[in-house]
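Hi all, a correction to my earlier message: I attached the wrong file for Catalase. Here's the right sequence:
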Amino acid sequence: MSTKKNNLTTSWGAPVSDNQNSMTAGHRGPTLIQDVHLLEKLAHFNRERVPERVVHAKGAGAHGYFEVTNDLSKYTKANFLSNVGKRTPMFIRFSTVAGELGSADTVRDPRGFAVKFYTEDGNYDLVGNNTPVFFIRDAIKFPDFIHTQKRDPKTHLKNPTAVFDFWSLSPESLHQVTILMSDRGIPATFRHMHGFGSHTFKWVNEQGEGAWVKYHFKTEQGVKNLDVNLAAKLAGENPDYHTEDLFNAIENGDFPAWKLYVQIMPVEDADTYRFDPFDVTKVWSQKDYPLIEAGRMVLDKNPENYFAEVEQATFSPGSFVPGIEASPDKMLQGRLFAYSDAHRYRVGANHNLLPVNRPKAEVNNYQRDGQMRPDSNGGGSVYYEPNSFGGPTESPENKPAAYAVSGSADSVAYDHDDYYTQPGDLYRLLSEDERTRLVENMVGAMKPVAVEEIKLRQIQHIYKADPEYGTRVAEGLGLSIPQEVLR
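and the right structure:
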């Protein structure tokens, strides 16, 4: 491998001092817009593919409703969560992450789980996956990570060497990689998998009191996964297997459903919890913060037109409603910008005016013009603010709750570098049969890696999570555990 030093630069040639940590206001503050390197990376990345989604290109969607089953108003003033029995219309899009629009449904890949709630206070988008964690924890690394999942620019083939090179140099990924290589890496259908908000969010009640929250959608159909050989067979014979299954189930009146649960963490616990609660590569123990039931989601209507309702559906983690706010999760902070920016590029500046994205709530603002404006464009109404002509005005009572930040504007990493406890705990929770399949899948994924150094580096991480786990992977690859790990 080359040892020549090549300085990383911006597109205008300036050297990049930190490509691993975005700049924040204080150690745990929000990401700063002055981090122009981060903005350039995210904005350029959103424009690298035309016109399909950069990620989550292949997917299926359905309409349904969310019904409140437990009063959680002591935690949040979000109206759609306020009263038991209240129903809110919603739309969901399931997807695979890395493949193109024509890729197979049954590949080993995380599944997107994006829910749009059409609330009376505007749309609320919860844009998660079927896993509670992610591969990285800072948005500045996202373009590089997804590059490894896409096709090699020279061969136009998938590149396992790039995949494991990145993962082995980003040990925070091991938790998600272990989940991906487990049975849950290939769900039987979209209906037979859980969904997660993944990130930590903030709930605020009517009194202005905050709490940190994580979302868990538990499938009522039960978790089922595909055998790797059957998944490969289906990929060739019916690459749209999951799309077909979801459509047929709803068409036949077998409406899939999920129970929504949340974990609630008091605001002050964030400073003392044994893992950083804003690190999306970590979970919160349910022993520490038990699941609390919130409601039930039911899918009961198929789209009438795939392009209009599924392909043009746009979701953003930044689409909040009063009572739900962002946390200092650095991966979430980057997504707040990147997703809406991607939609403005892919669908257009007026994507929220399309029927599938249009809020049920009345929309009043001063945005005008742009490509494909499908409404009256504000007519002859006042088009600026402040004004003397009765135009819409701000509502200070809906101001997000403040939280304190301190420290220097700097590119800083998360405090906690424990990459191994949670993936090790996960491995030890599996049955022997599940461990065997996990090891076989990991070995199978690593065998094509062209550089032995990369394999050994990844084995070191696995061994640190659990010695048995690492030893079995090493033996499957015909390699030995590096001596520096054994000391």
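Sorry for the mix-up. The first strand starts at residue 23 and ends at 25.
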